[in-house]
Amino acid sequence: MILKRLSFLLLGLILFAGRAPLQAQSLKSPQQFLGYKLGDQFTPHAQIVRYVEYLAGQAPNRLKLQTYGHTYEGRPLLLATISSEANVNRLEAIRTDNLKRIGLMPGQAGASGTQPAIVWLSYNVHGNESVSSESVLQVLYDLVTAQDANIARWLQNTVVLIDPCVNPDGRDRYATWHNQVANQMPNASPLAREHQEPWPGGRPNHYLFDLNRDWAWQTQKESQQRIVVYNQWMPQVHADFHEMGVESPYYFSPAAKPFHENVTPWQRQFQQIIGENNRKYFDKNNWLYFTRETFDLLYPSYGDTWPTFNGAIAMTYEQGGSGRAGRAIVTSNGDTLTLAQRIAHHYAASLATIEAASDRKEQVLQEYQKYYQQARTNPAGPYKTYLLKTKNQPGKVNQLTRYLDRQQIKYTYASKNSSDFGFDYTTGKSGPVKIEPNDLVISAYQPKSTLIKVLFEPVTKLEDSLTYDITSWAIPYAYGLPAYSLKGRVTNVTDKPAATATKAMATAGNERPYAYLARYNSLTDLQFLSALLTHNIKVRVTEKAFEADGQQYTPGTLIITRTGNERLGPKLDALVKAQADSFGVQVVPTQTGFVTSGVDFGSSSVRSVRKPKVGLLAGEGISPYGFGEAWHFFEQQIHYPVSVIETVNFNRLPWQQLDVLVLPDGNYQTIFDEKGLNQLKDWIRNGGKVIALEGAVAHLAGKRDFALIKKKVEDTINFKKDPYKALKIYGEAERSALSELVQGGIYRVTVDNTHPLAFGFNSTYFSLIQEVGNYQFMQNGWNVGVLKKDIYATGFAGIKARKRLQDSFVFGTQEMGRGQVVYLTNNPLFRAFWHSGKLLFGNALFMVGQ
Ligand SMILES: [Zn+2]
User: Fold this and answer.
1) d(CA 603, CA 600)
2) In angstroms, what is the span from residue 664 Cα to ligand 1's centroid?
3) Structure pTM?
4) What value does the CA radius of gyration of the chain take, rounded to a whole number of Å?
């Protein structure tokens, strides 16, 4: 198929006529700078950076450029601030006045009449939705030159912050690949190689995380650095530029239902206003578009919802295209969609957004201020305080407070005993609540109150259950901390927790103890264990509870004895202390292995934790996200060495070099055949350990020698008995399919915490579950985590799905010869934000089979 080459007619010329020549002659357009027309090829990230730097260098009085961070692969992350010369001259005052008005900075703001609205535009969060960072080059040029009188006026009313590429690693993965394989003359046939992006695709970042699911959790370096500058600016308007499949035209707000109930009337109204403003330009050019479908405002971790819960009006814009589209592609209706057209559409939406904010500047600013006023004085929702128990949970509390700090959520600690009435997250019931000193107290009366409510709400109200993503996420469940939401305010608080028992390590006479003890119940403790192992320190773990020096220790407690670590000599103490300090873990020295009650340290119930050599499968057939979550876990969370192995090499794995093999989610039909499966089983029988997740579990279940089997699906409809059951309504197809679905709900998993897979857990684990209960209890294995009857905590699950989840297997292990199979039917590393799940995975890795 030969492309009919469309010359790229710059949209600005169509839409915004009547330019007045200003400083433009001296500034190179993107085409002049790059040497090709936008749309003719994909621009590498380094060139995007060079062009923005060039504009900043040439027009410093209109564009200020900041490098706010770097990606995992070392590419710079940029923020360009563009406004009128007068505004650029007082940028810092504009920024700080904005923060003062909403209570995020102390002090009195200047006169409000001169305050411009702050508009933030984010491009290319999904790397292979690569049109964004092409169109932004034209947007930047036209804003900086401001030849159009309209643009000049908008820039008096607004400060425009532009992140030209949110995900440079993903973008370059796509752009580099495309530029390498594409024909000189674009081939628009969907069959051509330039439309078949290889594994893992350019959408996610380096660790294959979807950065548009990470705004609220901020587990990725890119998000963490971006949130710092976002909080420094706090824009009133945020637009996030995407692409969808090639068959769809263009999507702009208003967004689809469900809206989260805390999206305010003004935010809803402005969604409409923005839609109307976009419509003008799209109608004028006869471009197709749709609104109010597919892209909802519920899950709080998107580039539209997270800013929304921070008071902004925030939109997703979607152009038809993505990684399949290349520079030109023939769609099913025979039209050719070109990169140049895609650029024009995002360009139009970018300018229309700035225009809408400029036109209603006063109201945009007033409503924003009102939002924060309301947050501080009359917060949304029935609960006014969130209370978390901290006793014996320093690791979890440490992780949580670091998270709250990043979100600029303020917290204090209870200083006195008192009581209130509220909701208990563990039991799911409301009743009296005891408040004790050192409980973590998060008051709803603060600027980020709506965000707090959304992140902590026990139940998310759905006005419609058709949503794009998970439907529950409550932070107390994610961190595995006992928590309550209270109707009242807690007044007896202090900024710092009362000093806990002084570190026993410093006590005289304990310089060379018999052993060190460390409690184990959080990701932090897991990080500590991983650090000890990588420093070749021998660590033991108790399978049974014991009491020593008047303290109770649960199964999973780490014991570092001098015995076994002789070769370190006196260096052992300094090494243990250094690692404990760096993770904030408290280690307790003891002078004897003879415990008050329970098992002594020489008991056979106290096992050595071996330092396993770990392989992790990646490549064709494996879910990029599933692999990436495990990869990120090893490298960035527990800092433990891992060998990533390509699936094409499965049949010639160096089995003898591996102790553990992690099989992430994927389609294993294509990865190993009968011969491969037999190799795997032989290796397990010889002492290997497989950790199978999701799709890998599904592949092993029911196979010979594997103890896990699927549940039988009962034939629920008897057509013979009732032929009318066959009459379905076409228009309700999507809705009736919902009864079969679980959309990321939180469920109460009953846990056998005497098993090493559940060390550090209580008898209940709250799991984020996305799969319908597919498995029976195992007859020849350990059913460590199961769903029984009263299982539902929160989130959406259809009627049929809920029934099926009852009496089903969630995680457990099977012994096979001298080895182990660990089945994790739901991914405990999902998006790296379910912190309690990380301990479960860590147990599978270090504790099971010792
Ligand atoms: Zn996208």
Assistant:
1) 5
2) 24
3) 0.93
4) 29
Identify which of 714, 698, 715, 694 has the alpha carbon closest to the alpha carbon of residue 706. Answer: 698
Distance 129 CA to ligand 1 centre (A): 6
Q: Per-residue DSSP letters for 612-672?
A: --EEEEESTTB-HHHHHHHHHIIIIIS----EEEEGGGGGG--GGG-SEEEE-SB-GGGT-
Whether the predicted pLDDT of 383 surpasses 50: yes
Rounded distance from Cα 240 to ligand 1 centre (Å): 9
How many whole angstroms from 318 Cα to the centroid of ligand 1? 7
Amino acid in the structure at residue 363:
Q
Q: How many CB atoms lie within 10 A of CB 3?
A: 18
In 3D, which of 110, 371, 414, 87 has the Cα closest to residue 237? 371
Cα 244 to ligand 1 centre (Å)? 7
C-alpha 528, offset from chain centre: 24
- For residue range 41-71, what is the model confidence (pLDDT) as tens digits? 999 999 999 999 999 999 999 999 999 999 9
CB 299 within 8 A of CB 462: no
What whole-number distance in Å separates Cα of residue 417 and Cα of residue 423? 18
How is residue 820 written in tokens?
């182990």
- The string of pLDDT tens digits covering residues 307-317 is 999 999 999 99
* Residue located via tokens 């700080």: 96
- Distance from residue 290's CA to the centre of ligand 1 (Å): 16
| Nearest Cα to Cα of residue 493 among 443, 450, 543, 539 | 443
**Token pair of 37, please?**
């027309």
Provide the pLDDT confidence category of residue 72 given band limits of 50, 70 and 90. very high
H/E stretch holding 78 reads strand 76-82
- The residue among 833, 110, 795, 183 whose CA lies nearest residue 465 is 795
Cα 542 to Cα 161: distance, rounded to the nearest angstrom: 54
Task: State in Å: Cα 729 to ligand 1 middle.
Answer: 32
> Left (φ > 0), alpha (ψ -120 to 50) or beta: where does 713 sit?
beta
Parallel/antiparallel/unpaired status of strands 336-338 and 296-297? unpaired
